[in-house]
Amino acid sequence: MQKIVLASSNAKKVKELTELLAPFNHQIIPQTELGVADVPETGTTFVENAIIKARHAAEVTGLPAIADDSGIEVDFLKGQPGIYSARFATMHGIKTDNPDQANNDLLVEKLKGVAAEKRTGRYQCILVFMRHAQDPTPLICHGSWQGRILEAEIGSGGFGYDPLFWCPEHQCASAELTPEEKANISHRGKALRELMAQLPKYLPEASST
Questions:
Q1: Residue 120 needs a FRET pair 20 to 30 A away by CA distance; which of 27, 93, 131, 207 works?
Q2: What would the CATH number be for the domain defined by 2-202?
Q3: Which of 42, 64, 203, 201 is nearest to 134 (CA)?
Q4: Distance (Å, rounded) from C-alpha 140 to C-alpha 201?
Q5: pLDDT tens digits, residue range 103-154?
Q6: DSSP 24
Q7: pLDDT at residue number 146
Q8: How much is the pTM?
Q9: HEC assignment per residue over 143-179
Q10: d(CA 27, CA 50)
């Protein structure tokens, strides 16, 4: 079984990715279990930040690494929060002990009074797999999930902006989906399926069960 380090310290993201990867024949080890600290995300795109995180985890551990960089783009806000989705509130000088709630509150405020047809947006996810820290050709996979931003939070599942993200496929908020429903249609689920389809080319011994 191939050991792969998951380059994230976000407990909710680690849980979701670990569950999505469970059916496959790889031992996924969160970087926190290997003493790997977060690295500053200094890139200007999801791709750059995912590569930065994967390279750092691979360099520290000596293992292949998977990194995720994802966020939500809102058309009315010209793509914001984008790569700053997790830091949206703090980027605006808001101090909080609950970043998810602060981010959601700020997004609601910025879209106050905006008509439903102009509240379009999408989740984006980039997954990067690096065989080692100096890998010159990392595997880069992309998933996108189209939807609309709600005026108020609905549901208690998921994390991040899920209570504000209207899912047209199920006519509900993302936070109302079961983990299985979300995995089938989400940006991260799509990127992961692409990753697992391509991974055997990078790790010949890897196979799905």
A1: 93
A2: 3.90.950.10
A3: 64
A4: 13
A5: 999 999 999 999 999 999 999 999 999 999 999 999 999 999 999 999 999 9
A6: B
A7: 98
A8: 0.90
A9: EEEEEEECCCCCCCCCCCCHHHEEECCCCEEHHHCCH
A10: 20
State both tokens at 134: 């100096």
pLDDT for 204 equals 56
Structure tokens at 30: 């969160």
Is residue 81 reached through a cis peptide bond, with omega within 30 degrees of 0 on the bond before it? yes
Q: Where are the alpha helices (DSSP H) in 66-174?
A: 88-91, 99-110
What tokens were used for 160?
A: 């991040």
Domain residue spans of the chain? 2-202
Task: Find out whether 8 and 70 touch, Cβ atoms under 8 Å.
Answer: no
**Which residues participate in catalysis according to the annotation?**
69
Cα(32)–Cα(153) distance, integer angstroms? 31
Angle between the 11-21 and 187-202 helix axes, to the nearest 10 degrees?
60
